[in-house]
What we know:
Layout: H1 20-28, H2 34-41, H3 57-70, E1 73-78, H4 82-97, E2 101-106, H5 118-126, E3 131-135, H6 142-150, E4 154-158, E5 172-174, H7 190-205, H8 215-224, H9 231-245, H10 251-259, H11 268-285, H12 289-296, H13 300-336, E6 343-349, H14 356-367, E7 370-377, E8 380-386, H15 393-398, E9 406-409, E10 414-419, H16 423-430, E11 449-450, H17 453-456, H18 461-467, E12 479-493, E13 497-504, E14 507-513, H19 516-521, E15 531-540, E16 549-558
Amino acid sequence: MDLHAARTVTSPTSLAELSPFGRRVLASRGLTDPEGIRAFLSPRLADLTLPDTMADRGVAAERLAHAVRRGEPVAVYGDYDVDGITAAALVTRALKALGGVVTAYVASRFEGGYGLSDAALERVLASRPAVLVTCDCGTSDHPRLERARAAGVDVIVVDHHKVPEEALPALAFLNPHRPGCGFPYKGLASVGLALSIAAAVRGALGKALDVRAYLDLVALGTVADVAPLTGDNRILTRAGLQRIGEGLGCPGVRALVREARLRHAPSARDVGFSLAPLMNAPGRLGSPRPTLELLLSEDDASASRLAAELAEANTRRRAISQDMITSALAQVREVYGTSIPAGVVVAADGWHQGMGGIVAGRLTDRLGAAVAVVAFEGAFGVGSVRAPRGVRVYDAVAACRDVLQGFGGHDGAAGLKVHREHLEAFRARFATAPGGTEGAAVAAPAPDTELTEDDLGSEHLARDLRCLEPCGEANPEPLVTLIDAKLTDDRVVGDVHLRLRLGVGRRSLPGFYRDGVSARSDGLVPPRGARVSVLGTLKPDPWSGPEAVQLEVVSVKREG
């Protein structure tokens, strides 16, 4: 299954080898020196930051190596999101490959919730492990870690979340954000840290283990966790996506790609919009265990069965989340009318707690505001919070701490618990918590360049777009403008999107406009034949061919 073979081309390694469009995009992002351009266009595993200064890495590696030598049981526990599950799967697969005795566990939204909960710790301790490795959690689980230590278990925490001031009762704590950690690259997701641990244990044991076999898991977890796709993350994700495209992923990842019906080498966008939703679906509806089992499967038959199970769960997830979005939008109109504040709170009984993050994200895109979606059951509601780019979600929620029963998260996402009696107080407080109504809108990013007729005629345009991959957090897809284009066609696709055709001189460019149907009905999209200026992100269109490109329209305005 070599999905990558269809687009095997010689990648440019210098500015001179790029098209004029590619050169302008790199220049707009401050890439002008030859070595910086080479490192960006051709990231190499050899360029990864040396891990020697990572605090506690050596301690963790020696303890796990000792456990492998002695046949001591090791428990690996991951959080329920993609980063946590891929990190847990990576550590489990690596330790088993090195001869370790390992049992893997995963958190559940509905049985203990985020992190190493009391219920989860009881399950882990029942297996009497000598060592416990927590993945993508543990940084804030002091009471449970203390209990594990009291039970004689050596705990190794592998996490990348914000570090509290209180010292962690763990044998080893791997988190680049912890005070005193000299590892200079701070952007690694937990799965990237897990890869480093696997390499360290291999070294401590003096055994042969090609950790490149786990890069598919690193790519999935890094992209799904919206980690910055710069530096080490860019190197690891680029290599991992290439392995997936070449069919070198583990059986579970290969089955995911088949289930997602990807006919091309996956991009970071494919991970975010196709593969990650499949992996998250079981955990949003119930137990995330099927996803962990998928990534641990050793044969294609069991992997295919589990991937089909994930796909069925994702179908149910989509139906439930769409019903919640419709209900939430109706509530927004009832509560706020047309005056949308910086922070919006919607809440209801019977909403599915596992869908809060998805619904909050969709409403944020729709409203341009921070959104908290709260699902009530009895006296308490559990909420998920998302916000526009540039808004620090954790800080916005923390500003409301006196009316909440609890909260946690990071800059990109947060969760909370609120008593029913405090809902209206939270709604009033959160309305201005993200910065006030005037501060709600984040300044629009400047376009990378204008897209010209000559650019569209270049045979290297799609190639150069692929060279910018992986695109995502901190390395967005190129934002371009079209000046004096002609809107030659528009048609509805999938009830809400508009498929556009734009004429640029003698060239033609396809595009699509998310939620464009309502924009057209509101008069925001000019009629066919109009001369327009357009702002949008340019991206490859692998579904239409290896050299095809398309524009995702952000705005379209009539000229003249």
